[in-house]
Design goal:
Elements (H helix, E strand, L loop, with lengths): L3 E4 L2 E4 L11 H18 L7 E8 L2 H15 L7 E6 L9 E8 L2
Parallel strand pairs: 3-4
Antiparallel strand pairs: 1-2, 2-5, 3-5
Length: 106
């Protein structure tokens, strides 16, 4: 599986999850978003060019508000993507957060 694929002026990231599945939600979200930053930079773009995001939470009732606070602080204030967020069983039971994004390139 590729971490990212570029096609034309678009960059598609695969679903990104934290490295430490045992970490608390805050750490899982922050480290996963850092992975997104790194993959976007490697592809020649950044979070200010996000177009779309899909987020999965293991427990949306418990984790949506704290995740959303971190997400909103991480976003570029001037360029917010469209987003979907849902609850889903994860590939590994300890994963609490997964995100997949599409971004534009110059």
């Amino acid at each position: 599986m590729s971490g990212s694929v570029s096609h034309g002026n678009l960059v598609y990231l695969s679903g990104q999850v934290p490295n430490d599945f045992k970490a608390p939600l805050k750490d899982q979200v922050e480290t996963t978003l850092a992975k997104v930053d790194a993959l976007l930079a490697e592809a020649g773009t950044n979070k200010s060019k996000l177009l779309s995001a899909q987020i999965w939470l293991k427990d949306i009732n418990r984790d949506f508000a704290p995740m959303n606070k971190i997400w909103c602080e991480w976003l570029d204030e001037e360029n917010k993507p469209v987003r979907a967020c849902t609850q889903a069983p994860m590939a590994t039971p300890d994963i609490l957060f997964e995100v997949m994004v599409i971004a534009a390139k110059d």
